[in-house]
Amino acid sequence: MRAVLSGLGVLRRPAPAVGVSHGRVARPIHAEKELSSLATSPTVYGATTWRAFSLARYPLEVCRGHGKDAEVLDPERVPWVGALLRLLKRPDPADWHPEALFPAHPGEGVLAQLLGDLNSGNAYVAPTVTGNTITGLQRLHPQWMTLIRRGDEEWWCYKPTGAAATYYPRRTIAHLRLLSWQSSGASEIGTGPGAPLANLVAAESEALRQTADTTRQGGVDVIVTGKSEAATAYLQDPKRRKEVAQQVTQALAGGADGSRRAMVVSGDLEIKDAGLTPADLRAPEVLEAARAAELVALGVTPISVGSESGTYATAVQQHRVQYNNDLALVGIVEAYLLRPLAQHFASQAGGRWAARADAVTCRLSLDTHPGAAYLRDQALTYAQGLHGLGWSPEQAVAAAGLDLPAPDGEATTAPVSTPGANAPRNPLGDTESGAGEPATPAEEPRTVLSLLQGGRAFVTSTDPDGSRRSES
Predict the structure, then answer these.
(1) Which helix (H) or strand (E) is 8 found in, with range?
(2) Which residues, listed in sequence order, are joined to residue 140 by a DSSP beta bridge?
(3) Are 326 and 69 in contact, with CB atoms under 8 Å apart?
(4) In contact, 115 and 56? CB cutoff 8 Å
(5) Run of H or E including 45
(6) Is 127 helix (H, G, I), strand (E, B) or coil?
(7) What are phi and psi of 172, to 5 degrees?
(8) 0.85 cut: is pTM over it?
(9) How far apart are CA 444 and CA 426, in angstroms?
(10) Residues whose CB falls within 8 Å of the CB of residue 260, separated by 6 or more in sequence, listed in order
(11) Residues 6 or more apart in contact with residue 464 via CB below 8 angstroms
(12) pLDDT tens figures, 365-380
């Protein structure tokens, strides 16, 4: 059988990559449904939208090296750095037209949209290439992206409804994605918080809808029944039931003039709670539980959406947690989009930049993030404690993980203490017994300034030739 199949060429075909099959491989088919939570849940909308725009406003910087030792490159001195930052500032080539007064797709908006797309676990960016240079970036909706395999090559197919399909080689598209739980080819598709939030958002939406319906329709608060046959017979008349209902309602409202607060009825009528639990009473509990779970899935702390934090210590802790979460999110954007762009521009620059293109990166700087400020305060307090225990300032700063700049100028040492060296000097140069030496020429301007603060100063000096000079 092997010989027959070998003759037909079946066994000589290259095996597909692990987890990737021929034809359609994977597609984020539920992307639009998962992103719809932005328009359904106020919590998801607030936590996602304002967080995305907040992160997009942080400055972009191009660095040589990685981590805290990275060197930020000056766009005024390195031309390709300036070109990359201009691209990220206005990624739509049409926005560079002289008549484009207001850009349709500013860089901050495109970056915020990509961060929002990650709610579906996937975000896509297609470059516009002129020659060998990237001149634009276009956001592609994840709903219409399909990963396919033809022969030994993988392609992204972008097919919106009613439009022709566009095919891109896989590694010409920036695919930002979160972790995946699926097997086979579907493992190439990330899973975002929109998937686990589907049921929570549906419950939240239903609670809000029922509350609105109850508010519009109204409901009963108490029910009146007859305890005896005579009372039951009395209430069988619709006119009498209406009269009783009006009297009870008026009594509950405080009477016609608002002064009566008590209601007296005959013993044959029983007034009790209707036993109904309207949705507007259940909704706060449902909304509170859904809101807490949604914030956890989105990686957002309550203080980031304006909630009360309770105490200052709790607020600081939430800011620190939010800073770490935001670092992870912008790290995904750096790894999948910004760093490859920086390496591409460095390669196109040629020379020494092309030889070390793998050493450059582009990132969002979160140095001004509130959580980063609190972490620096904590590290500085720790360094001060170590210095108080006898550590040198350099050792304390290094142990605390701080990266403080070196002081400007040359280091100075304290003068050696000698007898009489610390005796006060007479500002006018008297040499009376027990007084210090006259002020030197280098000290005279400071002394004169001190005297001028109280009035007029009279200074006598000696020239190098021995002649004396007095100045007022």
Answers:
(1) helix 2-8
(2) 124
(3) no
(4) yes
(5) helix 42-56
(6) strand
(7) -100, 0
(8) no
(9) 11
(10) 251, 254
(11) none
(12) 999 999 988 888 888 8
